[in-house]
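Attaching the record inline, Q. Sequence:
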Amino acid sequence: LVRAPYVKHQDDDDFIQPGILYREVLDDGEKERLVDNITNAMAGVSEQVEQQVYEYWTNVDEELGARVREVYATKK
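Structure, as predicted:
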């Protein structure tokens, strides 16, 4: 056991693992259900929050962010 400060690596962020889950684990049906759940939860959000949601999910995966934007536009 060593007492030492944690050294943050360049790959340490909040989006690495969710991105891998989205790209490598989920099948097409699961991806569509995820997008549907996200866009359903966005009902009634402000324009500012809507843009933050797009940015957040684009950080996870660009395809996911684009899909959320596309599907939410049809639900508005």
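The CA atoms of residues 48 and 54 lie 10 Å apart. The chain has one domain: 16-75.

More tomorrow.
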